[in-house]
């Protein structure tokens, strides 16, 4: 039997591949067996919770994975259809390790697995995923999975529904009782928000009217890709917000762990702006509960807008900067006991959600912030939207080191200061102030550029100069 090379499937934070040529029942059963042996049994965990998205392949793959886990005497709780943050809620509330079958925003032919320890603690390349990959590869290379059982009895498989508990828990964290009535258009992109949004916002006692777009669960994504990070995938939502005279719009990705916001004019609100807004609210809540602001920490990655750490500092709290990537954000949040963390990719992390990311909770904060006052969303967020950013621009280069060195030399000639926490960040503090980040890809000869300044002309000048240096032929 031909074996699959798992090196191309197991990414930095999850498993992702095409079905069935890369990812099939045999592969995920081996991964389930390896997960039980590497993560569950050594840590003395007493079970695993497994959920899946709406892709046609997801239920079958989830069952095969569960069988691989159960072969080691580990009980498995199947929760069926859920969002990724729904799986994290189940992991936290049930105190179980977890596996979520989803390929997030990837096209229909893809599927994958996001793994976590109990209490939604992440499993990435440096925290067990590499060992899971290697053991699963060994099992597959043997050519037989019939003798995987290492326990006297196999674990049990049971089913439970956690959706109502997930919705109730989120609603307990943000009080919408004092909100004015709001109309919100929600684009689920035929993904899992079509299940979770009605559960969270569909209760009659909330002052929220939901106008649904593409709530039908359909893993073929017939209307547009479930990836709101791509501007064209927001067009339907933007048009609907204006058409319905809505107060705002929300767009979720395929597994509904990321949330993007559109204001009443149909204009996209930067995830950095949402990060600053939610940070302000979470700091204020901690202070109201008696915390000293200096003891409150908020984590942000190094490519969010400068408005984020400025907002945190203005509130008297501590802004903690970290590398890009959810495993870094989560670990730094746990280290500092941070109340909140945000990334420019629209991942939002909450201490009260087991330090895991949940777009739905961020959406509830935006609704509450808007409903507690009378300004439109565009005016409410203006205080947090003080800079002009380039967005992330990728360049394919032959010599990443040389390209980075050219950009650094130019920036140092402009009196910018270097930081190498994650790639290269150059910051110029005197007028006209700006910063840029150049981060190399871990898997491709790519450099990712982000630039920000207080005015568009400066941002564009720095952007174009750095791109010219990066893309210069050696």
TrEMBL record:
Keyword tags: Isomerase, Magnesium, Metal-binding, Phosphoprotein
GO MF terms, alphabetically ordered: intramolecular phosphotransferase activity; metal ion binding
One GO biological process term: carbohydrate metabolic process
Pfam families in the record: PGM_PMM_I (PF02878), PGM_PMM_II (PF02879), PGM_PMM_III (PF02880), PGM_PMM_IV (PF00408)
Every Alpha-D-phosphohexomutase C-terminal domain range: 392-467
InterPro entries: A-D-PHexomutase_a/b/a-I, A-D-PHexomutase_a/b/a-I/II/III, A-D-PHexomutase_a/b/a-II, A-D-PHexomutase_a/b/a-III, A-D-PHexomutase_C, A-D-PHexomutase_C_sf, Alpha-D-phosphohexomutase_SF
Residue ranges of coiled coil: none
Transmembrane domains' residue ranges: none
Annotated Alpha-D-phosphohexomutase alpha/beta/alpha domain residues: 10-134, 166-266, 275-387
Cofactor: Mg(2+)
Gene3D superfamilies: Alpha-D-Glucose-1,6-Bisphosphate, subunit A, domain 3, Alpha-D-phosphohexomutase, C-terminal domain
Top-level taxon: Bacteria
NCBIfam families: PRK09542.1
Family stated for the protein in its record: Belongs to the phosphohexose mutase family.
Protein name per the record: Phosphomannomutase/phosphoglucomutase
Organism: Ornithinimicrobium avium
């Amino acid at each position: 039997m031909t074996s699959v090379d798992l090196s191309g499937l197991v990414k930095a934070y999850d498993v992702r591949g095409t079905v069935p040529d890369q990812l099939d029942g045999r592969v995920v059963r081996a991964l389930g067996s390896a997960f039980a042996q590497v993560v569950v049994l050594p840590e003395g965990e007493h079970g695993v919770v497994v959920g899946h998205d709406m892709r046609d392949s997801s239920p079958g793959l989830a069952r095969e994975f569960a069988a691989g886990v159960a072969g080691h005497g580990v009980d498995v709780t199947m929760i069926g259809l859920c969002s990724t943050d729904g799986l994290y809620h189940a992991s936290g509330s049930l105190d179980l390790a977890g596996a979520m079958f989803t390929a997030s925003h990837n096209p229909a032919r893809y599927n994958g697995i996001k793994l976590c320890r109990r209490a939604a603690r992440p499993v990435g390349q440096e925290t067990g995923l590499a060992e899971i990959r290697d053991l699963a590869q060994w099992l597959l290379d043997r050519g037989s999975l019939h003798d995987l059982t290492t326990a006297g009895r196999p674990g049990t498989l049971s089913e439970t529904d956690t959706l109502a508990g997930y919705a109730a828990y989120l609603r307990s964290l943000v009080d919408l009782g004092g909100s004015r009535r709001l109309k919100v258009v929600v684009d689920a992109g035929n993904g899992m928000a079509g299940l979770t949004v009605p559960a969270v916002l569909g209760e009659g006692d909330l002052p929220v009217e939901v106008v649904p777009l593409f709530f039908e669960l359909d893993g073929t994504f017939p209307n547009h890709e479930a990836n709101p990070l791509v501007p064209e995938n927001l067009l339907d939502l933007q048009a609907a917000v204006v058409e319905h005279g809505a107060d705002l719009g929300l767009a979720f990705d395929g597994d509904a762990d990321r949330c993007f916001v559109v204001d009443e004019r149909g204009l996209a609100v930067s995830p950095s702006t949402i990060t600053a807004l939610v940070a302000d609210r979470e700091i204020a809540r901690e202070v109201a509960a008696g915390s000293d602001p200096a003891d409150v920490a908020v984590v942000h990655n190094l490519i969010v807008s400068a408005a984020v750490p400025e907002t945190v500092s203005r509130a008297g709290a501590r802004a903690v900067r970290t590398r890009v990537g959810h495993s870094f954000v989560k670990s730094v949040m746990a280290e500092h006991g941070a109340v909140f963390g945000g990334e420019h990719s629209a991942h939002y992390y909450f201490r009260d959600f087991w330090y895991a990311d949940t777009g739905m909770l961020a959406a509830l904060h935006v609704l509450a912030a808007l409903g507690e006052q009378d300004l439109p969303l565009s005016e409410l967020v203006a205080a947090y939207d003080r800079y002009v950013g380039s967005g992330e621009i990728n360049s394919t280069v032959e010599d990443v080191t040389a390209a980075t060195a050219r950009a650094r030399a130019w920036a140092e000639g402009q009196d910018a200061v270097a930081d190498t926490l994650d790639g290269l960040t150059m910051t110029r503090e005197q007028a006209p102030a700006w910063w840029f980040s150049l981060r190399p890809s871990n898997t491709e000869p790519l450099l990712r550029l982000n630039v920000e300044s207080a005015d568009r002309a400066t941002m564009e000048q720095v952007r174009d100069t750095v791109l010219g240096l990066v893309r210069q032929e050696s």
